[in-house]
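Please go through the protein record below and explain what the tokens say about the fold. Record follows.
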Amino acid sequence: MVTLKTIALMADRVCRLAYDAGTEALAALPSTATWQDRIATQAAALRLSIKQHPGGAQLLAESPGTLSTGALSLMERLLRTLLDAGLPADHCAIAADTLLSHVTGFVLQEQNQPAAPPPVTAERYAELCERFPLLMSPSTPRLSQDEKFTRSVRLLSAGFATPA
């Protein structure tokens, strides 16, 4: 039987690994890296760390109230990055929490996707195109998960820089 304490310890371990991976990735950035680059690097390291553990996103999602030093370290570094960028202090905690929630949710979706999409007949495809023209449009980009993640983090960062 897995106890809440065991879940908390496992989540802390994933967060510590993510923190260490983020430390390495940040050290590899050029000195000209922007704060948005630093945020994107931390988010990417967290995503990869979570993905390395089957059910890792679910694990983190189920242990948000735990005072984990691993999770607190991740949050502290994000807050420092945002504060150093000049964002208002009262804005930073919400921004950091939003980013961590986004990463966890993104990986939850990735880890719960079927291996292959269900087959769609030509008739069903035509019906979907008619019913959902914007979504099914050839002009709607079909992005890899990596590209979608990178763009989503960039969009969030742009929003963080906008006064609330």
Q: What stands out?
A: The CA atoms of residues 6 and 94 lie 28 Å apart. The radius of gyration is 18 Å. The chain has a mean pLDDT of 87. Helices lie at 4-28, 35-51, 56-61, 69-84, 89-111, 122-131, 133-136, 145-160.
